[in-house]
Amino acid sequence: MSENLGMVSKITQKRISELLKQDKRIDGRGLNDYRELKVEAGLIERAAGSALVTLGKTKVMVGVKIETGTPYPDTPDNGVLTVNVELVPLASPKFEPGPPKEDAIELARVVDRGIRESQALDLKKLCIVSGKKVFIIFVDIYALDFDGNLFDASTLASIAALKNAKMKDYVIKKDGELEYKANDISLPLQNYPVAISTAKIDDKLVVDPSLGEEIAADAAITVAIGKKGNICAIQKRKVGTFSVDEIIQIINLSKQKAKEIGAMFLKG
Amino acid sequence: MIERRQFVTPGELLAEGDYNSGENTYRENKKIYASKTGLANFVRNNVYVVALSGCYIPVVGDLVIGNVVDMRLGVWLVDINAPYISVLFASEAVDRSFNSRREEMTKYLTIGDVVLAKIISFDRTKDPTLTIREPGLGKIPLGHIIDITPTKVPRLIGRRGSMINLIKRETNCQITVGRNGRILINCAKLESEALATKAINLIEQDAHTTGLTDRINKLIKKEKKESSIHAK
Amino acid sequence: MPNKKGVEKLINKKGRRIDGRKFDELRPIKIDVGVLNKANGSAYIEWGKNKILVGVYGPREVHPRHLSKYDKALFRSRYHMAPFSVAERKSPAPSRREHELSKVIRECLEPTIFTELFPRTSIDVFIEVLQAEGGTRCAGITATSVALADAGIPIKDLVVACASGKIDGKIVLDLSDIEDQKGEADMPVAIIPRTGEITLLQMDGIFTQDEFEKALQISIEGCKKINAIQREAIKNKYLVEKASIEPEPEETVNEA
Prior knowledge:
By secondary structure, chain B is α+β, with helices and mostly antiparallel strands. Chain B is 22% helix and 34% strand. Chain B has helices spanning 153-157, 162-171, 190-206, 212-231, and strands at 6-8, 13-16, 20-21, 25-28, 31-34, 38-43, 46-51, 63-72, 75-79, 86-89, 114-123, 126-131, 138-139, 144-147, 174-177, 182-186. By secondary structure, chain C is α+β, with helices and mostly antiparallel strands. Helix content of chain C is 25%, strand content 27%. Chain C is built from four helices and ten strands; from the N terminus they run ββββαβαββαβββα. Chain C has helices at 96-109, 136-150, 177-182, 209-238; strands at 29-33, 41-47, 50-61, 74-81, 121-131, 160-167, 170-173, 185-192, 197-201, 204-205. Chain C has a five-stranded mixed β-sheet. In chain C, β1 (29-33) and β2 (41-47) form a beta hairpin.
């Protein structure tokens, strides 16, 4: 994210660099180690679906709401997906109340692209009456405790919440009104993208940067990986640069990590 | 009257009658109540609470570890983990007269630097001011900083320095304790540093319990034994 | 929904409420203390199906600076509902209701805080309602005073809140969402338990004076029960294992 995250002192920066020279990280992890990850789904009964992801000391909650509304004119046969991020001020002394700023909007858009471009949700199946009435899926991302790498935590929590979501089964009547049945159905999910972020500090690449590493990093990149290891979204961040070789290396690592995390938390 | 070392929460009655209201307590009529969570205690007529959490409030003479966060003409602004940003005037940082209009301040200190400093003034109306013009004070060149709850610093130091000296002796680390809850560790070996960090974290976690010195001793002995087995 | 036919009766023949409670019975309440890392103090409360997270920052530098007060800390609170916390998705922009609640919550808690000890600073409270089921302001207030204690901010007492109201002509404690909507009156009350002072009182609906007095009475009784839960929650953070306590060092040396 941007420069507004606070700072790390020079001696901490120096320490991060010294340790990286020996391929070690400030919190004891190896370069390719992800922090401990926990996914709890269904905590918010009032939401259609919900998930709380704990990634080290970072905590993100996502709630999914399902409503009906009108489709976008250019996609009359598609349901609508809306991803919104609130960096709520209890998560960090740096977050302030008020409408989402640059950082929150970038985060929301990167998560949105991961879901949208991987066609995780089959939006066609969320159409009720072409051009008139469709289901709107709200994915509200709530950062609760911020210790770095909101991108991965938010994407994982979003997919887990979509997977957890239930709605009443329905039939579409002739007049386009919905008649709900007693049983529940799941959302039409067909892909489970996983976002993996990597930071570059002094020409070393570290996966899942903590807050200190995110601040110390020259550049960072988030890669969302979908089915069959396909790349479905990329966002390079911060003012530093990557070489092509580094990018290829990051993509290979991201594919591997995404597979592991997907197998652990999103399958079955 | 409460028992000694009783766990109390804000609003609980501590004493009634002829007592003085000490730290983290308040008096209403003839009764003394806790204003913070902690361990209540009394020495003679003085009733007080040893708080288990809370921010650092500067006290003149305290040694603190601060981060330089901003600069103005002739002053550095230093974050000392307190509700107030502290001020380091150039005259308290440089040994000779210093003309901040002519000389480059960043030559001495710049944003991101960490300093070991002493508080020389503070009151309700003015932000704390610092000095680094004393032996041992000044810019910290390297090391590992860990943060603990400032109210637990006395526990880390221990009676006449017993706890901190134990950790220093057993780990061979240089450890500097800032009253503001910032601890600087310098070690030749990463393993020793990790051990010292572990010990300090245990003190932070268990500051309110008994037998802590024993447990720290055991922790260090056990870890040292294990690492020597690994070394073979 | 407890009653599929649409609610006609809020109290059944046996005198039980829709969720099975007696007239003066609280919903289950659980409080966890110190759940967040970055905040200086925090608390999470589950009260019935209400789920609320509170974070406290401060005392800290005031932003923007011109709001700072020379003789005491500026106390601010923000009550905010997550978009997914209610049946219909709520816009994340604060509504008029949220602005009002932020204000009454601030005014309810401030008299217990020793703000005069921290001139020129701010103490900021953020209340995030993750799920709402009626009575969120009371649950938010109850959790906030616990979070203030967790932050080590000196306070006179733990403020505690609980609503009472009238449903089907009966005075009851701690209204759920449906009871609030279908009932005749709702009255959130917050007290400073040590002194019994009332620090928040709101009411909407119709009460006779007798009903009002009875409602106030059961709210205060409810508050006292909840106050015990608050104190227990704080204790649990520190005394998970029943460890006895060692005297603090009498004399300490500043180490360099």
